[in-house]
């Protein structure tokens, strides 16, 4: 027992500050982490978010037996979301890496490295997009993943007759296989092999992004004689997630495993459906929220592009049917996983995100009253109700979620105060970033 003298007070303060008092308990409760990142899936797609165009039973079950996030924000396109997720920093803070690249200085500072250093075995399956793997097959390993199974992004097909690299080699047994089955099989095998260890399994889904559009010859059709349409891809996305969850169930690991689902940006506006004479044909993607028609919002900095569905499910820890109203953006995943994994943040860098682990436990979260997104040099910060673009446009999102009417200071109660507050956030963000270079994001395929 600690006494009451000055030295004891100092000892107590030391133990609290270093986390030593709580460490044994927290270490024992460190979960496996199954992070599922779908591609091009907006809120309106999921039944649990009110979507009525598609059936998403497995995701809806994760939501009803876990927690939905109401204010979860990604970047509006694939690559910057992945940069932010893995580095914990916004793209402009790591030098605005060009499309399909990863900043070399951050290679050893990813969330995968942090979890590995804390004893986790790590794997990623599906989409990489951070280099052309044919030129650098060690890249996922260098970024902290012990194992990988990833399609050759912009090198070949990701769905039918896929081109897939696995742990440093190109697979040669996939000619008759369907990519998403391969990616899921790999991750299930990884989880089964490591069921007695703590694992970080990152399912970076190919679905529901359409086929690649920059190869000389269009990639192969599936059995339908065309490419799968968006609804068909949503169905397979949900099915593959169901397979993964069933595997975790079968191993009896649900109470030891946090399942986190999110998506890298909103639904695509159009999706490639076929190819005629070598020319790709696209169709619009429009979904329903009951009577409301919702066009895909990918590439836009609007809610349609950035306000994404997110679900946390952790049997025995996350309350069933809960709704998390905390503001969350992609920079928050890094500190969250670090906290839950008993890991450490990388030294020498400042991360903008805050852990939402308290929210998962039903506890109040401290320190985050804004989120950020950027795309092609434009950016915004927002609270729940207000959104300020760096070009000065202010929107009252609570009453104008479609951003139809910029608000002038004084035109609405609270507008001037919101503008001042968010301007300060923007100023601090851009003043404190130290690594930005003059390079700009490039306009490239996703
Ligand atoms: Ca995407």
Task: Explain briefly what this protein structure is.
This protein has twelve helices and 18 strands.
Radius of gyration: 22 Å
For the termini, the CA-CA separation is 59 Å
- The DSSP helix count reads 12
CATH hierarchy class name: Alpha Beta
* Major sheet characteristics: 10 strands, mixed
CATH superfamily: Alkaline Phosphatase, subunit A
By DSSP, the count of extended strands is 18
Supply the CATH architecture: 3-Layer(aba) Sandwich
Helix fraction, binned, reads 25-40%
Strand residues, percent: 15-25%
Shape: globular
**Alpha-beta content class:** alpha/beta
Bound molecules: calcium ion
Strand order of the largest sheet: 6-5-4-3-7-1-8-13-2-14
Mean pLDDT across all amino acids:
92
Number of domains: 1
Record the SSE blueprint.
Blueprint: H1 6-18, H2 23-28, E1 32-38, H3 57-64, E2 67-73, H4 78-87, H5 111-117, E3 121-126, H6 139-142, E4 147-151, E5 164-166, E6 169-170, H7 179-193, E7 199-204, H8 230-250, E8 257-263, E9 270-276, E10 279-284, E11 286-289, E12 292-295, H9 303-306, E13 311-313, E14 322-329, H10 333-340, H11 357-360, E15 371-375, E16 378-382, E17 386-389, E18 394-396, H12 415-432
Parallel strand pairs: 1-7, 1-8, 2-14, 3-4, 3-7
Antiparallel strand pairs: 2-13, 4-5, 5-6, 8-13, 9-10, 11-12, 15-16, 16-17, 17-18
Helix pairs in contact: 7-8
The structure holds calcium ion.
């Amino acid at each position: 027992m600690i006494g009451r003298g000055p030295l004891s007070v100092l000892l107590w303060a030391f133990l609290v500050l270093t986390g030593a008092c709580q460490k044994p308990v927290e270490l024992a409760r460190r979960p496996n982490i199954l992070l599922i990142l779908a591609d091009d899936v907006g809120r309106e797609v999921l039944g649990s978010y009110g979507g009525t165009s598609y059936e998403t039973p497995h995701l809806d079950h994760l939501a009803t037996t876990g927690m939905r996030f109401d204010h979860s924000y990604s970047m509006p396109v694939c690559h910057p979301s992945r940069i932010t997720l893995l580095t914990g920093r916004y793209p402009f803070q790591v030098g605005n890496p060009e499309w399909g690249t990863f900043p070399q200085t951050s290679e050893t500072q990813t969330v995968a490295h942090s979890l590995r250093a804390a004893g986790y075995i790590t794997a990623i399956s599906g989409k990489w997009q951070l280099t052309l793997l044919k030129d650098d097959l060690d890249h996922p390993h260098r970024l902290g993943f012990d194992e990988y199974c990833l399609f050759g992004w912009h090198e070949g097909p990701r769905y039918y007759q896929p081109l897939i690299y696995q742990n440093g080699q190109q697979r040669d047994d996939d000619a008759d296989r369907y990519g998403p089955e391969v990616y899921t099989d790999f991750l299930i095998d990884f989880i089964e092999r490591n069921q007695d260890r703590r694992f970080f399994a990152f399912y970076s889904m190919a679905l529901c992004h359409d086929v690649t559009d920059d190869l000389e010859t269009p990639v192969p059709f599936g059995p339908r004689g065309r490419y799968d349409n968006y609804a068909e891809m949503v169905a397979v996305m949900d099915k593959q997630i169901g397979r993964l969850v069933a595997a975790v169930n079968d191993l009896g690991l649900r109470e030891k495993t946090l399942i986190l689902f999110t998506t890298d940006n909103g639904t695509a506006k159009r999706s490639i459906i076929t190819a005629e004479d070598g020319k790709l044909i696209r169709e619009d993607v429009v979904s329903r929220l009951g009577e409301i028609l919702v066009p895909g919002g990918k590439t836009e900095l609007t809610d349609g592009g950035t306000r994404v569905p997110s679900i946390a499910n952790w049997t025995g820890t996350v309350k069933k049917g809960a709704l998390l109203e905390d503001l969350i953006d992609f920079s928050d995943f890094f500190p969250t996983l670090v906290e839950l994994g008993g890991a450490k943040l990388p030294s020498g860098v400042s991360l903008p995100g805050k852990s939402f682990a308290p929210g998962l436990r039903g506890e109040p979260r401290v320190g985050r009253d804004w989120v950020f997104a950027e795309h092609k040099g434009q950016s915004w910060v927002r609270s729940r109700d207000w959104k300020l673009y760096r070009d000065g446009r202010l929107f009252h999102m609570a009453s104008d979620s479609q951003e139809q009417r910029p608000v002038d200071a004084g035109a609405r109660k609270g507008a001037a105060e919101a503008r001042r507050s968010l301007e300060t956030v923007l100023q601090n963000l851009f003043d404190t970033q130290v690594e930005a270079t003059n390079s700009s994001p490039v306009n490239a395929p996703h």
